[in-house]
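Input sequence (130 aa), recorded before submission:
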Amino acid sequence: MSRLPHLSLTPLLLLAAALSIGYLTFTTLHYVVHNYQVHHDETSVRADIAQLDREHGQLVALRDYLKSDEYVEEVARRILGLVRPGETLVVVSSSDNAHDAPSTAQPARTPGDAWWKEFVPPSVDVTPSP
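Predicted structure, token format:
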């Protein structure tokens, strides 16, 4: 008859306790890391939402400006060359030395610039009103 070796109960209990503590430590650390990542993601999303809200406000202000009589008059005068009754249109032609004149071309748009800002004269404020 074969006999199994007699194992003491104390080492088995210590092994079970060590495994339980290791598991609890691992799950707690996993929870803490996950919680930190969620908090970081939430902060990032909130910053994105704030930026999008600012851009939305600017676009709403731009839409309102494009619907205004001020914009229509600006386009009529600058692009179409129209004048009000009683005004005289003066056209200034460039000289033959046009290559000596400083360039008035718009600088190239950088990727972060808003595309719609090209349509608004610099004198117009498109920040949203509170």
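Checked by second reader. The longest helix spans residues 9-66.
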